[in-house]
Amino acid sequence: MDPNMMIVKTLSETDCSHDNKLILPRDKVENIVRSTGVPVPRMGIQVEILDNTNSYWVNLRQSQRGYFIGRGWGELRDARNLKAGDVIKLYWQNTKFIFSM
After folding, report:
1. Molecular function (GO) terms listed?
2. Cα–Cα distances in angstroms (integers) from residue 81 to residues 49, 58, 67, 76, 77, in the given order
């Protein structure tokens, strides 16, 4: 696995709130964008997150502060019963993120 394609994140209270947003590290997302050549328009891009055999479609968006996953994040968060302090990994492979803990 290429570590440049991996996002490791300790979930914050904000990530687990009912705002349904997962804030992502800007440098990691920009590295993936550069490596893949797939731009992230301001209104976002649909991205698949594969969690074992479950697939979640989420909206990866850019804001003035960085990047976040919006629509779809709440479903994955609730399905995995994620809470603040949990460490998650998102590995970009081909055209999707592979989720792990």
Report:
1. DNA binding
2. 16, 17, 23, 8, 6
